[in-house]
Amino acid sequence: MMNLTDILPEKLAKEIVGNGNQKVSALTFDSRNVNPNDCFFAIRGTQIDGHSYIEQAIEKGATTIVCEELPKGKPEGITFVLVESSSLALGLMASLFYGKPSEKLKLVGITGTNGKTTTVTLLYKLMLQFGYKVGLISTVANYVNDTKIDATHTTPDPITLNKLLKQMVDVGCEYCFMEVSSHAVVQNRIAGLKFAGGIFSNITHDHLDYHKTFAEYIKAKKRFFDELPSDAFALTNMDDRNGMVMVQNTRAKVYTYSLRSMADFRCKVVESHFDGMMLNVDGIEVWSRLIGRFNAYNLLAIYSTLTLLGFDKNDALTGISSVTPVSGRFEYVRSDNGVTAVVDYAHTPDALENVIKTINEIKTDNQRLITVVGAGGNRDKTKRPVMARVAAEQSDIVILTSDNPRFEDPEDILKDMKSGVDASLAKKVVTITDRREAIRTACMLALKGDIILVAGKGHETYQEIKGVKHHFDDKEVLAEIFKSMQA
Fold first, then answer.
1. List-wise, which residues carry N6-carboxylysine (predicted)?
2. How far is the C-alpha of 441 from the C-alpha of 483, rounded, in Å?
3. Which of 322, 352, 381 corresponds to the end of one domain?
4. The last residue of a domain, from among 274, 299, 322
């Protein structure tokens, strides 16, 4: 139980109606989870306005209400805190409620379209390997040192986030690596957090269903760097055309990394094979079990971050040579008859092109690439035809199939995808709505030495249809089909 005055930053409140010393037992923005003496935040979302639930929250026992608009009825014993932004207030107050946990460890965030999960997960694993206690906040899972906590969002809400960070501090974690999504920045989920560093990976076509324009998407990513403190580092990818845009207004110390030009940290891909690649990092050759130029960027970002955190360069290089692929990121399954199937989370045009390009650079002329790909429902529709076009232009055979249709008709999604395929390429593109059958067909079509790419879901172990998550694991399905074909 805390006093409201202890968790209310100075000048945040435009007006306080009621007892400013009200006791607060917990914070919540979901009226269904309210308990006696809780502080309820009325947040305006894209579909639901929390102000509509103030009365319900009070009925369930909330004694403090943070809102952007005061209700007409103000019951006795209830304190109302009027603010400009309830979501901003939630972030700032959650940090104070949990004792400013982000200030008690070195918190490093990464933002960008692709590479976030791989980069933070491998940084987390390397820190464990180096003997440190460390936390991870990612799309795949959250970890408080070695304790796994399932993830529901790329970046959790401010209450969950600060609670996680406090748990990390309580067990002695010195570092935390987290993905920072564009949604999280815009929705103030990271408000009140102190970052020791920020990393920019790249920015390509994604989430335009939410941000509406690419300019707004860039602006959301850039805001993360705009708000970094002066004692933090801002590490940016110089090879992305928006890399320097991201850091042009930051107060943090700027560092750059690149595979193509002069930068603070440099890398070159010397050799590339299906079982790994040889890199030259800052003049030293190192072998990695990860594959592809996109992973060379991820590994260079990891090396740069470790160096900026004060680690010896040789230790950082030794570390990146030991890491293995992150779940669902260019993982492969091989059949007994010599077919290689690659499973990757690529669900944007750029990510898909990167994976296909990597495979085409490694495979020989007599090997074919069969790509199985879909697009998620109730998400950015504009990328659907682009993804289909990318697959058709750079694969030998393409099977368009269902991803996570959610509440959309899979056939409508596939129709959107097919609209991007040029008539000259239509002969090598087939549509099979059932994902399992699509993967099975790819396996049946594959000859010895061929490569199958199953893209879009990666680490996911479910397929979401009409609000229900059905068990579905691309790697598992591939292994089953390969096994049945050997019988």
1. 221
2. 14
3. 322
4. 322
Q: Is residue 459 within 8 Å of 468, Cβ to Cβ?
A: no
C-alpha to C-alpha distance for 210 and 206, rounded to whole angstroms: 9
List the Cα angle 291/296/298 in 5-degree steps. 105
| Model pLDDT for residues 99-115, shown as the tens digit of each residue | 999 999 999 999 998 88
Spatial CA neighbour of 136 closest among 155, 157, 158: 155
- In this structure, are strands 141-144 and 134-137 parallel, antiparallel, or unpaired? antiparallel
Beta strands in 131-196 (DSSP E): 134-137, 141-144, 147-150, 175-179
What spatial distance separates the first Cα and last Cα of the chain, rounded to whole Å? 63
pTM, 2 dp: 0.82
- Answer yes or no: do 116 and 145 share one domain: yes
Q: Which residues pair with 267 in a beta bridge?
A: 281
Identify the bridge partners of residue 284 per DSSP, sorted by sequence position. 281
Domain match, 269 and 345 both: no
What residues form the annotated binding site for ATP? Answer: 112-118
Q: What percent of the chain is helix, strand and coil (3-state, nearest 5)?
A: 35, 25, 40
Longest dimension (CA), the chain: 79
Numbered residues of the known binding site for meso-2,6-diaminopimelate:
379, 403-406, 456, 460
Positive/negative CA dihedral, 419, 425, 430, 435: negative
The number of distinct structural domains making up the chain is 3
Annotated binding site: 31, 112-118, 154-155, 181, 187, 189, 379, 403-406, 456, 460
25 shares a domain with 133? no
- Domain limits for position 471: 331-486
Cβ proximity of 291 and 362 under 8 Å: yes
